[in-house]
Amino acid sequence: MMPLTASDTVSCTVVLADEQATEALGSAIAGQVRASGEGLTVFLEGNLGMGKTTLSRGLLRGLGHNGSVKSPTYTLVEPYEHLTPAAYHFDLYRLGDPEELEYMGIRDYFLGHDVCLIEWAERGQGVLPEPDLIVRLEPHGRGRVAHLNGGSPRGRGVVQAIGAGHVV
User: Fold this and answer.
1) GO CC annotation: what is one (predicted)?
2) Sheet strands (E) in 92-161
3) Mean pLDDT lowest for which of 4-8, 18-22, 131-135, 138-142?
4) What is the three-class DSSP state of 32?
5) Beta 77-80 vs 143-150: how paired, if at all?
6) How confident is the model over 3-58, as pLDDT tens digits?
7) How far is Cα 121 from Cα 43, in angstroms, rounded to an integer?
8) b/e string for 4-19 if b means 16 or more Cβ within 10 A?
């Protein structure tokens, strides 16, 4: 796949005052997924403790999940197949080699119909597909800032809707 260039992407930045705002951003992304009826591959970037799992929780709850959401650090993937569309939350922090993803059938998760949330995606480089959306979380005062970058038509649509302020 060809790398994305700046002209292929759409970006916006959202200031997140607290955990509730981070969950609300995840829920807003879920709203866009529900509206489109299509899946979405999201790479979640940021250091430990930046809110990647919190954002995932908001997105999964926005898709209708009512239970707890934990980071699948040891299992690599937590399925949420009861949702529409089905969602899969990956945490590749403990991945030793990207080739390990091939053994778990990683490509089957990215058929375009499901939502795939991937923490520490850089550890799967060379095996993972290009993301529709990248969300990079960084500290900002007492809260966080989320930089959203949409590289596919679906990802660009999400970023445009959130950047226009219609969904957060």
Assistant:
1) cytoplasm
2) 115-119, 133-140, 143-150
3) 4-8
4) helix
5) unpaired
6) 444 557 899 999 999 999 999 999 999 999 999 988 999 999 999 989 999 999 99
7) 6
8) beeeebbebebebeee
